[in-house]
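Q: A reviewer asked whether we had any structural model of the full assembly, not just the individual parts. We don't, so I'm hoping you can provide one. Inputs are below.
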Amino acid sequence: MAGHAHNAPQLTKNQALVLGTLESAGAPLSAYTILDHLRGEGLRAPLQVYRALDKLVAIGMVHRLESLNAFVACRHPGCGHHETVAFMICEACSNVGEITDASLEDRLKLAAEDAGFAPKRSIIELRGTCRDCQS
Amino acid sequence: MAGHAHNAPQLTKNQALVLGTLESAGAPLSAYTILDHLRGEGLRAPLQVYRALDKLVAIGMVHRLESLNAFVACRHPGCGHHETVAFMICEACSNVGEITDASLEDRLKLAAEDAGFAPKRSIIELRGTCRDCQS
DNA sequence: TGCCAGACGTTATACCGTTACGCAACGAAC
DNA sequence: GTTCGTTGCGTAACGGTATAACGTCTGGCA
Ligand SMILES: [Zn+2]
Ligand SMILES: [Zn+2]
Ligand SMILES: [Zn+2]
Ligand SMILES: [Zn+2]
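A: Here is a predicted structure for the entire assembly that you could use as a starting point for your response.
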């Protein structure tokens, strides 16, 4: 359960178990996979996992990958409050990287506002091949 | 079944039914919702809808919205081959707009390559409020 | 003490998507 | 014309993802 200290508000037992599972996996896991990893710790129902995930996502320690229906522990360099993050998902090794790029964010916001759209949340997920997997 | 003519390769009956449903809805629909709309036309199983959707997505007449697990008929102005599209999803009225912005695409590609990542596919979905729904 | 908010546990259910099988239609190759 | 590969179709069964609706238990606080 190593980790970067987001200003984390005392995790509960289930939240800590779920976070630990994600961190030691180092890759995205589905809620049901997490559940399977934690049956030995007494968890039995999906909802126990989903509730913990909801909280962890809310405080920014875990991200949800929409295109994968899966969750990953935050690896953001510095782990600040990232408003907009772009995820790089390697299809070969499942590793997930995070980009925060202000000019990209600006560009996106501008393009949306040109169309009269007021964005609240941005989902950016790149599928491809990470540095290590390019042969 | 009005529509823009992508260079469409003669849709089959099921494909035309599914596309027609999406176009007349004018908003994203889940595969099961499409199926419910088409029971009267003889469709009975999810697979019939998913197969049609697969094809329609492949030829670019329908887009899949990953963050919604839903599908929408293409409304892209000009409907060309869009490599990278950003979707603007209104959370108030469910309307979906499409942006194609070369400089945004470049910026994203550059940021990824800085990180040693070779992207194959980009998923960009903005959640927010469209022009008509801002009061 | 009484109350409330938040986390918890359990059951059941809804929603999303695929596997596996077999059949029918079409066109190219022989 | 027969063979064969490809593509679409239909059905059944299944597996993966997420939530609803209960009730319980705790800790904080008036
Ligand atoms: Zn992060
Ligand atoms: Zn990789
Ligand atoms: Zn489009
Ligand atoms: Zn709207």
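A: Points you may want to mention in the reply: Chain B has two domains: 13-73, 86-129. Strands of chain B lie at 62-65, 70-73, 86-90, 96-99, 118-129.
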